[in-house]
């Protein structure tokens, strides 16, 4: 599991998540998430889940953790290119009611 960061603009950072968002994957990326919260200055964070095929409760926990810390700093976050099993769990848990979620196949938000 890895996070690949790319700056879209001075205001927006894209985080491409590669691999499964499960307990092991979340442990692997926790230092990167903490660094993003404490050191990054971008106002808007896009989390691209196109390359995530599986997400469990640990993945949901990591997303909610990141979202809450960014909101505390008056920053925004959205999930991009969500599809497959991650989309099903995000929809089931109604994550889209708090965090904007862009569905990969239709480019519509939940």
Automatic annotation (TrEMBL):
PROSITE patterns: STAS
Residues covered by the STAS domain: 2-110
Family of the protein in this entry: Belongs to the anti-sigma-factor antagonist family.
Protein name: Anti-sigma factor antagonist
């Amino acid at each position: 599991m890895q996070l690949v960061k790319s700056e879209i603009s001075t205001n927006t950072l894209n985080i491409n998540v590669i691999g499964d968002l499960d307990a092991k994957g979340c442990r692997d990326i926790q230092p990167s998430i903490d660094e993003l919260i404490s050191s990054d200055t971008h106002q808007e964070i896009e989390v691209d889940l196109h390359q995530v095929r599986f997400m469990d409760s640990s993945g949901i926990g990591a997303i909610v953790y990141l979202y809450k810390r960014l909101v505390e700093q008056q920053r925004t976050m959205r999930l991009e290119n969500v599809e497959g099993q991650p989309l099903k769990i995000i929809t089931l848990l109604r994550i889209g009611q708090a965090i904007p979620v862009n569905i990969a196949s239709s480019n519509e938000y939940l």
